Amino acid sequence: MEIRSVRPEEHSDLADLTVMAYQQIGDLEDSYEPELRDVAGRVAGAEVLVCVDDDGALVGGVTFVPDHGSPYAEFDAEHAAGMRMLAVHPAAQGRGVGEALVLECIAMARAADRIELVLHTGTEMRAAHRIYERIGFVRDPNLDWWPTPSVELLGYRLHLEATANAAGDGGA
Ligand SMILES: CC(C)(COP(=O)(O)OP(=O)(O)OC[C@H]1O[C@@H](n2cnc3c(N)ncnc32)[C@H](O)[C@@H]1OP(=O)(O)O)[C@@H](O)C(=O)NCCC(=O)NCCS
């Protein structure tokens, strides 16, 4: 299994995979599916990683938001980085791919000298919550927000200095 930047020829497959994974959680808001499919936009405004298995199949992806100046940033702090659109193909879930992608984002945040990694997650995304809490992310209700009246997003943050050993240092 390899984690690396997405290639242009993989944009369409990553878009399909991301939508498929998110649809497992529930119906998508009308405006959200085009946003999830816009891999090229994320490449332009952030850093998109994929996980490819030993057979070369795309099994997951995530967007690393390097700083608050990115159009994908959902935080203001200058010292923070972010993580968005974590998704693993339904057939590849439960094998650690999601955690490996999160650990890679943590490694990238450390390499960029960020002192915290911030993310938002849906209330029903329980597999994701398990990964975040196991790694050491903590809930911060001050980060919670409602992109629409019916969608509540929960904020989590990982303080990188305090959790260097718990979160692993080299990523996946
Ligand atoms: C969240 C997600 C990326 C996790 O990917 P993953 O590769 O399955 O993650 P991992 O294998 O590293 O671990 C996920 C946790 O859920 C459990 N899990 C995930 N899929 C499972 C399955 N099909 N059956 C049983 N357990 C499963 C794992 O056991 C693990 O929990 P545990 O180690 O505490 O027991 C994936 O479930 C997904 O794409 N979900 C839909 C999109 C989403 O919620 N994204 C998060 C955005 S904030």
Give the SSE order as H and E letters: EHHHEEEHEHEEE
Q: Could you state the CATH homologous superfamily?
A: Gcn5-related N-acetyltransferase (GNAT)
Overall tally of domains: 1
The beta-strand count equals: 8
Helix content: 25-40%
Spans of at least 5 consecutive residues whose pLDDT stays below 50 are 165-172
Ligand types: coenzyme A
What is the tally of helical segments? 5
Q: How many strands, what sense, and barrel or not for the largest sheet?
A: 8 strands, mixed
CATH topology: Aminopeptidase
CATH 2nd-level architecture: 3-Layer(aba) Sandwich
Average pLDDT figure: 93
Shape: globular
Q: End-to-end span in angstroms? A: 9 Å
Radius of gyration: 15 Å
Structural class: alpha+beta
The CATH C-level name is Alpha Beta
Which band does the percent of strand residues land in? Answer: 25-35%
Write a concise synopsis of the structure shown:
The chain is of the alpha+beta class and 172 residues long. 31% of the residues lie in helices and 28% in strands.
Which short descriptors sum up this protein?
172 residues, alpha+beta, Aminopeptidase, eight-stranded mixed β-sheet, 8 strands, binds coenzyme A
Question: Could you characterize what this model shows?
Answer:
The structure is a single chain. The chain is of the alpha+beta class and 172 residues long. The protein has one domain: Aminopeptidase. It is 31% helix and 28% strand. Bound molecules: coenzyme A (COA). The site of coenzyme A (COA) has 21 residues, from helix 1, strand 4, helix 4 and helix 5.
